[in-house]
Amino acid sequence: MKLIAKYNRVNIIATIIVLLIASTCYYFIVRYALIRQLDNTLKVEEAEIMNYVQRNSKLPEATSYRDQHTYFAEATSPLKRNFGNISLPERHHKRMVTYRVLSFPISIDGKLYQASVTKSEEGMEDLVHLIFLITVGIIILLLLILFITNRFLLRNLWEPFYHTLHSIKQFNFADNQPIVPQQTDIEEFKELDDAAKAMQSRIIKDYETLKNFVDNASHEMQTPLAVLNSKLDLLIQEPGLLEPHTKQLQAMYDAMGRLTNLNKSLLLLAKIENSQFKSIAVVQIDVLINEKLSQFEDLISAKHLEVNAELQPVQASMDGYLADILLNNLLGNAVKHNHENGVIQISLNEEKLKIVNTGPLFDFDKEQIFDRFKRGEQSEGTGLGLAIVKQICDNYGFMVSYSRNNTLHLFEILFRGKATLTKD
């Protein structure tokens, strides 16, 4: 959930709760005030009746109007003055109407009477309902204004934040494009832009330092490695070498070859991670697979491997060199780590590439197969081939996975819409 949506939800819910509580309190306060006003009206009627009794020493005539009644009754016991509510039938509409009643005692010539003055609460209730409806209308209008304000005005208010966030998402080491802040007078967003620019500067500086180190180190290592290889070639070809010396030189030569391959693999990984492969071309995956199978033809024949390939014409937009490395590593593993008279099954369509091969089980967790320097005890490689495969797939948004079933090993690459099926 986005921050502005979360803020709007909390803000509107809190506003509704506050308005409901305030409206309820307002309703009861208004009702209490109107009842007090009605009681004051009844007190005025009481005062008029008492004045009439004092002047005339008799009770006034009982009255019965639509919204007000006055009646008297003899009392047999002392009474107290009190207010109350009663329901009386309304003659015109034949329904019960609530009345506010004031009962008080009157003494005339030693006789005790109970006087009751009632006044209809219908007008008060209508007024309360009208006030309630107006209040509800105001609440709805306030919520609507609040929603529109949060929806549009606050979205514009947060625009600099989203602009900075978009710039951070689009930041690329290779492009080296600075974050361009959006003009704003909000201090927090200005501080965010300053922090993002400072962070970008530090990252670019560290990236350039690391990139230069990798480039320089790999370049400087190539010359001594090449010299050592040539010297070892000459030493191996020297006449008169004893067999123990020849074995030691051959071991050194093999180690030097692995060191050379390791240097190339680490450099390739660093370049992929640093997004230094920017060229994009349309690569015909099925054609490239056939080319790789032709390159491994001698090794396939030597191991008497059975290769079954079901390839649909598929194109992918990626760097041609990386596509070659990707398929070379996958197919190379399927061939080199297979056993005699083994099987390789390859299927390719617009959705995925699947390579299944027989081979011995390795002695580590299958979840670690794409980790760097992870290899079986019998492997003579650098342990970086599948790590390079994983890095290339991540670079282009492909999803690579591995599973096994006894001696069958399955590598699968999902193109996620990055590849297209070509029509013949």
Draw up the topology in text.
Layout: H1 3-56, E1 63-64, E2 68-74, E3 82-90, E4 95-108, E5 111-120, H2 122-157, H3 159-170, H4 187-236, H5 243-273, E6 281-284, H6 285-295, H7 297-302, E7 306-311, E8 314-318, H8 320-336, E9 343-348, E10 352-358, H9 385-396, E11 399-405, E12 408-414, E13 419-421
Parallel strand pairs: 7-9
Antiparallel strand pairs: 1-2, 2-5, 3-4, 4-5, 6-8, 8-13, 9-10, 10-12, 11-12
Helix pairs in contact: 1-2, 3-4, 4-5, 5-9, 6-8, 8-9
From the helix content, strand content and strand pairing, which structural class follows?
alpha+beta
Largest sheet: 5 strands, antiparallel
Beta content comes to 15-25%
Fraction of residues in H or I helices: 40-55%
Query: Tally of extended strands?
Result: 13
**How many domains make up the 3D coordinates?**
3
Tell me the strand order in the biggest sheet: 1-2-5-4-3
Shape: rod-shaped
The helix/strand order is HEEEEEHHHHEHHEEHEEHEEE
Mean pLDDT: 79
What distance lies between the first and last C-alpha atoms, to the nearest angstrom? 46 Å
Contiguous helical run count: 9
Work out the radius of gyration: 46 Å
Low-confidence runs (pLDDT<50, min 5 residues)? none
Structure description:
The chain has helices spanning 3-56, 122-157, 159-170, 187-236, 243-273, 285-295, 297-302, 320-336, 385-396; strands spanning 63-64, 68-74, 82-90, 95-108, 111-120, 281-284, 306-311, 314-318, 343-348, 352-358, 399-405, 408-414, 419-421. The strands form three sheets. A five-stranded antiparallel beta sheet has the order 1-2-5-4-3. It has a five-stranded mixed beta sheet with strand order 7-9-10-12-11. The protein has a three-stranded antiparallel beta sheet with strand order 6-8-13. By secondary structure, the chain is of the alpha+beta class. 15% of the residues are buried.
